[in-house]
Amino acid sequence: MEKNEIRAVIKYFCLKKMSTKDIHSDLVETLGDSAPPYSTVDLETSLFPTPKKFKVSSSAGKVMASVFWDAEGIIMVEYLEKGATIIVSYYADQIRRLREAIKQKRRGKLRAGVLFHQDNAPSHKAAVAMAAIQETGFELLEHPPYSPDLAPSDFYLFPRLKEYLRGKKFDDDSEVMTAVEVFCEGQDNEFFSKGIMGLEKRWTKCIDSLGDYVEK
C-alpha cells in the first residue's frame, strides 16, 4: 500500500474516532510487516484531530456529488448543498472550474486538447452549458439518447464506489465525503484507465446497433 493510501486510511479511521493504538493495530493486522511503525501512525493521527461533537446529530442523508475524471484519476469533485439541484448556470460554472482544475492537475493537456464526455441531462444540453463547453475549448463527445450505460461514471466508477460504501454507517455528510475521498485516493491509474477504455467497447456496440440502447 502506497504512503498516500495509508494516510487516507488513517484519516478515515480518525473520523471514525478510533484511537492511535487501535488504528496501528488494525494496520498491522491488515498489512503485516508492511504496516507503518506506531510512531508514524501517531504522527499522522496528530494531523487529523478527531472532531468533537457537542450534541447528537442526525445521520448522513443523500449526498450529491459531481465527479470529473479521466484515465489518470480524479480531476475534480464537487458536492451540492443539501436540497440543491444542478441548474444550468451552476453546471456552466462547473465546466469553467473544471478547465482550471485540468490546468493545475494535467499540465499540457489543455494545449493537447480535451475530449469531454457528458450524458444528456437537460442541464448538460442547455445552450448556456454548451456555450461554456465551447468557451473552454473542450471537444464534446456526443452521447446517444437513452444510453446511461455509455457514461463511464454510470457503468464503471459509481457502481464500484457504491459497493465500497455499502454497509458503512456515517454520522454526517462530512464522513460520507471523506469516505469518497478515501476510495478515490486508493485507486491507481490502471483502475481509472480501465474505466475509460471500457467506453470504447461500448461505443463500438452502440455503433453496431445503429445507436440503439446498449446495456452490456
Automatic annotation (TrEMBL):
Residues 3-41 form the Mos1 transposase HTH domain. Gene3D superfamilies: Ribonuclease H-like superfamily/Ribonuclease H (3.30.420.10). InterPro entries: Mos1_HTH, RNaseH_sf, Transposase-MT_Hybrid, Transposase_1. GO terms for molecular function: nucleic acid binding. It holds the Pfam family HTH_48. This is Mos1 transposase HTH domain-containing protein. It comes from Pieris macdunnoughi.
